[in-house]
Amino acid sequence: MPDPDSCQPDLSRPSYGEADTRAKLIDPALYSLGWSEEHIRREETAGGIEIVEGVARRQSRGRVDYTLRVRVTTPSQPVALAYVEAKAENKPPTEGLQQVKGYAAASKRLNVPFVFSTNGHLFVEYDAFTGQTSPARSITQFPSPEELRRRYERGKGFALDSDAARPLLVPYPGGEATRRYYQDAAIRATLEAVARGRNRVLLSLATGAGKTFIAVNLLKRLTDAGHMRRALFICDRDELRTQALGAFGNIFGSDAAEVFQLPDGKNNARNAKIHIATYQTLDAGSEEARNFYYKHYLERNTFSHIIIDECHRSAWGEWKFILEQNPDAIQIGLTATPRQLILGKQTRSSKPEYLGPVDVDERRIRDNFDYFGEPVYEYTLAQGIEDGYLAPPEIFTFDLFHDGKPEPERTETVKRDDLEGKKLTDSVTGQPLSTAQVKEEYNQTELDERLLMKERVEEMSRSLFGQFLAHGSTPEQKTIAFCASDRHADAIATALNGLYQDWCAAHGHEPKAFYAFKCTAKVSGSDLVKDLRGSASSHFIACTVELLSTGVDVPCVRNLAFLQYVRSPIVFYQMLGRGTRIDPDTEKLMFRVYDYTDATSLLGQDFKTKYKPTGPGGGPGPTPPPTVPPVLVEGVQILIAPTGRWLTAMLDGRHCRITVEKYRERVAERLVASASTLDEFRHVWVQPPERRDLINDIVLAGFPPRALQVAEEAEDCDLYDVLGEVGYGLNRLTKANRAFAFTYKHRPWLQAMPTDTAATVRAIASQFSRGGTESLETPHIFQTPEVRKAGGLEALAVLGDPAFVLMDTKERLFAA
Question: Whose CA is closest to 722, among 739, 740, 704, 700?
């Protein structure tokens, strides 16, 4: 067995790989400096998604990061300070992070100021406060928790035990499995900024990354810390308001309410702490709405906190008076695409506050960076795809604008002569037009926004319908088609419905209702979104203009079709975000983009190099490999498929299939409801009757924890470690590594014993590496060959009753 106290390589044995380096060199060295198991958090991502010949497959394992955290008080939420990159023993500690650039990226991604890389003997450190990387030093010089905490507090400008930092210490109400690493990083970044005295904070997270979860937990922690009086959550769609109300209601109950006027003239949210409103409800553009605001929110600084959802859009229209009426409020902007105002040559004067004659869009939507400052945390679409939390796109591009013209003849406009003989319609009035009535020349966007051509609509629809057939067994695929105008949406829906009816007739297929349908504001499109999302037998192709371009959450959408020209990168990325949500219910891991207007040219260069557009055509992808037969664990089926790992469980009174991540969340919620702190969990665990009650409580809720253990391939770990990680962020150890950790954690205790007594205690502890907790509770443990050979009951007698010694050993195995 290696000597944990040695920081010199043992040349008599082969070098350790990365896992053994961590367990046998790094962990013991950190422990000797005060970094116990509860200081170390194992952050594992979902596992990236690969698209191979049109088929999406999830990688079996995600990236695992280790963060070092400090806990100010026993029940408080640990605060992450550092990231540790472990290297194999024979590798230099600097390998892999590319010096300063790599360290800085890790620091930003996890929102920690310190990054360490070590091979168990030497380490290097990157300090984000100074931007400096240290030379390699002995692991014995690694900073202690107290030292790193002092440096963190000095760099941040506040103490963790101060009132300003109190929200940082509020635990997650459902346990640590309910949040993802970047959500925790974003919440900490926001609360750190507020603790430093900022009252305007910007968060930039990709669509589908869970901005509402962040908003709910931010306000929950501020409330529990006694820092929040009343909050306003404001968004610009009824759909988003409904989503937010559900999320806030789960945590705040009746303390969260929608803002609207009741028949008796009172505000529905008058007694709530969280007021949820749309921009339109409080829009100063309407005198009635402004009167509503002043009637119900008369006092200045009515709100102590305001969260502005999708703050890149409409946030700085005339209703900004609400922000001006609450100047002392902590104002937090959420967006996937923070907007910067780009001004022309004639827009600035000597007065810095004067913007000049910018266009209407720029006047209505001010510069997010100017108002809030740089984002305190960013999580991009590319990062979400890499982590496996967002679906990657497969992109197909088409050129119908040039009507088959060879490259040298292509232009950016269509002339009147090119339209000769074509059936033309005015997109605004719907009236037919003769060639003599049209303009001399049309640019790309005008073709469909102002001038509708039947032949172009039919050709575009035929091409799109053909792509559905090329990449699926039926054309019944949930799709959003972005059209140029209301009439264009009508025409596209009509053409697609005709093609669908012909296909059904040719294949003897019963047509489904509402195959393609117009989904715009003019036809109460908000109501149709529910059918697009919820119906599996109708409403497949939503032909929209702007209604579905932003904000709306429709995870089941598998295709996006760009049939309108898009000039704004912000608008494009918002539209692209309609497809990036992963949908466990339909096993959706990817989506396809059919681009007829060169919209995907707005993708950032880095993104394009990862996901290069594919040319038109192509057939269905290869048949995925056969699914591994399900495994049954305590009544729960575990299915391992190319699309990921799934478990069956009871949700809302019915059996359904859920992801491992969702199962973890449910286990964590039940666990922390029974044992709210890690110390309480440890106390329960070592008492067999109490432990059985705890496990039974989780099982009766429909989520047997042993099924999670099998699904995560953690059978080399004791169930204690599986639950400790899920509920409390405990560093998960294998049974063998926990037994090994016992020998260095309790060395002084063992060294004080007679030699044969210490050997017997070690032999008892080693039984854990074979059978886990239960192996320490069998009445035959003292008769095992290892224990008897070491000294047996006689050797233990010097310490008193062997039963008490056994309990003491068990408690020490699980001690921090």
Answer: 704
DSSP alpha helix (H) spans, 204-320:
211-224, 238-252, 287-296
pTM of the model: 0.87
390 close to 580: Cβ distance less than 8 angstroms? yes
Using CA atoms, how far residue 587 sits from 165, 473, 581, in Å, is 41, 16, 11
Q: What is 18-156's CATH topology?
A: tt1808, chain A (3.90.1570)
Cα separation, 757 vs 755, whole angstroms = 5
Of 3.40.50.300, 2.50.20.10, 3.40.50.2300, 2.60.40.10, which CATH number belongs to 393-610? Answer: 3.40.50.300
Considering only the C-alpha atoms of the chain, give the largest distance between any 2 of them, rounded to a whole number of Å.
110
Q: What are phi and psi of 804, to 5 degrees?
A: -70, -35
pLDDT > 60? residue 357: no
What the block records as the tokens of 73 is 């008080």
pLDDT number for residue 740: 96
Model confidence pLDDT, tens digit, residues 98-136: 656 788 999 999 999 999 999 999 999 999 999 999 999
DSSP string, 661-693: HHHHHHHHHHHHHH--SHHHHHHHHTSHHHHHH
Neighbours of 265 (CB within 10 A): 9
In which residue are the tokens 């009343």 written? 230
Under CATH, which number does the domain 163-387 receive?
3.40.50.300
pLDDT average, residue stretch 679-701: 95
DSSP readout, 52-102?
ETTEEEE-SS--EEEEEEE-SSTTSPPEEEEEEEE--TTS-TTTTTTHHHH
Query: Residue 790: is its pLDDT beyond 70?
Result: yes
Contact 430, 487 (CB under 8 A): yes
pLDDT of residue 676: 94
